[in-house]
Amino acid sequence: MENQEKMNKEKLKSMEAIFEAKIANDEKIEPKDWMPEKYRKTHIRQISQHAHSEIVGMLPEGNWITRAPSLRRKVALLAKVQDEAGHGLYLYSACETLGISREEMYDQLHSGKAKYSSIFNYPTLTWADMGAIGWLVDGAAIINQVPLCNTSFGPYARAMVRVCKEESFHQRQGYEIMMTLCNGTQEQKDMAQDALNRWWWPSLMMFGPTDDESTHTEQSMKWKLKRKTNDELRQQFIDQTVPQADILGLTVPDLDLRFNNDTGHYDFGKIDWDEFWQVVKGHGRCNKERISARKNAWDNGKWVRDAAVAYAEKQSDKEEVKKAV
Amino acid sequence: MTNENLIQYLYGIADNSLILGQRLGELCGHGPTLETDIALTNISLDLFGQVRSYFQYLAELSKDDLTEDDLAFLRKEREYKNLLLVEQPNTDFAYIIVRQYFFDVFHYMLLEKLQDSKNVNLQGIAKKSIKEVAYHQRFSGDWLLRLGDGTEESKQKVQQAVSDLWVFTDELFHVTKDDEAVIKAGHGVDVRLLKDDYYAKITNQLKQATLEVPETKYFQKGGKQGIHSEHMGYILADMQFMQRAYPDMKW
Ligand SMILES: [Fe+2]
Ligand SMILES: [Fe+2]
Ligand SMILES: [Fe+2]
C-alpha cells in the first residue's frame, strides 16, 4: 500500500516535470497529455468564456441584419455574424477536449456562472454601430487574441490562428463602413461620431482592469495565456486607433487624450471603472436581453435537438437490424 | 416579349430569394444549435447572392439609372412579386424547415429548366445557383425527416407546419401574363409543367417522414400579383428602414 502510494507520487512528479519542461520549451500541451488540474480548469474557464463571447457577440450585430442599408452590406454583415458563430464553434470544440460538454458550458452561460465579454451588453442603436463594432471591438479583440496564437494549449492556439485571420478582416470591414459614413452626408458623419462616442470607452474596457487590480496574471503569463499586461494591451490599442480616427476626421471622446513625445505613446483620460464593474456584474444596458435571447434560443430549440437524437437512434437501430439480417 | 415582360418575370423569381433571405436573416443567432444557425445563415447568404445577380441584370434592363439597391429597397409593396409562401413568419423551427423545403424543391426544379433558357444571363445565374439550391434542398429535406420521424412532439409540430403552409404551394405554379410572354419567347420556364413532379416529390418525402399529406383543395394566392399577406408590410418596414429614413445616401 505504502509502496503503491510512493509510486503514484513519483509518477505524478515525473508527469509534472514533463509538463513543466514542455511549457518551458514552448511545446504545445495537447488534450491527451497530462496537465495539472489548475491548468485544465483555467483553460476551461478562459476558452469557454471566449466561446460565449463569440456567440453572445452575434446578437448586437444580428440586430441590424434585417435593416442593413444595401445588399452588399447585408451580405457582408450576415457573413460576419456567421464567422462569429464559426469562432464559437471552434472554441467550444477546443474546450470540449478538456472534458466539459457543450451543454454544461451553455448551462454555465445561462445561469450567469460563466462570463462573456461585457462589450456585448451595450446596445446597437444605429447602422454606424456596425462600423464602430468592427473597427473598435474586433480591433481590440485582435490585440487581445494575436498573442494567443502562441499559447501553450494546442487546440486553443490553433483555433486562435483561424479566428485572428477572420477578425482582422472584420476590423477592416468595420473601418470601411466608418470611412463610407465619414465621406458621406453630414447626417452620416454625425452618425459615425455618435457611434465612436458610445463605443470608445467600452472598447478600452475590453482589456480588463488596470494591472494593479487584475488577478492571476503571473500564472497566465507562464502558460502563455497572456504575454502582455492589460495596460500594455490597452495602450497598444489606443496608439493604433487614434491615428485611424484622425484619418476618418472623427474626434475621440477624451479631452485628456494627447500624444506624449517623451513616451512615444498617447496619454489618455480616466476610465470609468464603476461603469465597467456595473456591466461585469450583470447590470449593463443589455445583459438581461442578451442572456435571455441565448436562453430562449436554447430552450426553444430543445424539441429540435431531441428530435435529431431520436431520429439518429432510429436510423442506427435500422442499420443494426439490416446487419443482423 | 417586351422588356417590361422580362422585368416582371425576373421580379417574380428574384423577389422570392430576397424575401426568404430576409426571413432567414432574422434568425441569425437564435437557432436551436450553432450548427443550424450557421447552415440557415449560409442559405440566406446564397439567396442574397442570387438576388444580387438578378438585380444587377434587372438594373441593366431598366431604362432609368437604377441600382440593385433601388430595386431591393425602394419599391412599393405592390411591386414585390414574391410568393406568399416565402413571406410567412418564422413561427418555429418546424415552420422554418417546411417553408424552406416547400420552396427549395420548387426552386431546384425551376433552376434546372432555367439553365436551358434562351437568355444567356438567366442561363448563367441558374447554372451558378442550382448548386447552392441542391444543398438547400438536402438540408431542409433531411430536417423534414428528422422532425417527422423524430419524437412525438416534433412530429406534431412539423405536421402542423405542413398543414398550415400547404395552402401556399399551389401558387408556385401560377403564371402571370408577363410570365406567359417570357415563356413563349423561350426565356422563361413554364412552371405549370413542373407541378405534377413537384407534388410527387414532396408527397414522397412527407411519407418518408411519416407525415400526412394534407388533402385540402383550398389554396391561397396573390403574391405574384403583389397582393401580399399582412406580414409583408413589416418585412419591408425593416428592410427599407435605412433607405427610407436616410434617402439618397451611399452606404
Ligand atoms: Fe473573438
Ligand atoms: Fe469572432
Ligand atoms: Fe469578429
From TrEMBL, chain B:
InterPro entries on file: Aromatic_CoA_ox/epox, Ferritin-like, Ferritin-like_SF, PaaA_PaaC, PaaC
Set out the biological process GO terms recorded for this chain's protein.
phenylacetate catabolic process
The GO cellular component terms are: cytosol
Pfam families cross-referenced by the UniProt entry: PaaA_PaaC (PF05138)
Give the protein name, as stated in the record. Phenylacetate-CoA oxygenase subunit PaaC
Which species is listed as the source? Psychroflexus maritimus
Task: Identify the coding gene.
Answer: paaC
